[in-house]
Amino acid sequence: MFKLRIICVLLMTLLFVSGNFLTLERGDVAGRTNATARCPMPKTCHIYGFMEWYKVGSYCVKFFSELLNFTAAEFSCRNKVPGAHLVSVHNEEDNNLLVNIVKQANNSNPRVWLGAFELFKTETFLWLDGSFWDFEFWKPGEPSHKHTSEDCMEMYLSDAGRWNDETCGKKKSYICAFKWHTILKPGSEKME
């Protein structure tokens, strides 16, 4: 992730210094490379009423800076959108997009709640939305289970978005998510 940012900065510097930024076109053009494609912010969810949410995988997600404990954050998500939960993460690309979303909106809270919890001290984590546990991005040495009360999961922004097990009662910012197709009623359209 760090190397990717350096490459993006160098490419942008070269474009602006050489004057070629005036000819850079949106999207890929035959024979050219889009220099900003490797530093992505996700597209917005094009659903009426949710344009401030971002599309990450099959989810619409939004960062909330309000500091809440894990349970309150989950209930806050559920109250914001029917079918919403704290976000689940299923691949490194989506994890990186979440880091970008949070960093754009937040510089003061380096830790953010994600939607996973440990099942009854079994050292098995589950996603609150019921999705499969098919990806992990733990900080080295985590989950540590050093404290018997570390049953919830957070993301460390200062460590490339790696995960940590944490005490559920601590107050943190959080990311809510819902599957975009669950909010659309039959016959309704997404915005294009």
UniProtKB/TrEMBL annotation:
Pfam families: Lectin_C. Residues 56-177 form the C-type lectin domain. Keywords: Disulfide bond, Signal. PROSITE patterns: C_TYPE_LECTIN_1, C_TYPE_LECTIN_2. Residues 1-19 form the signal peptide. This is C-type lectin domain-containing protein. It comes from Cirrhinus molitorella.
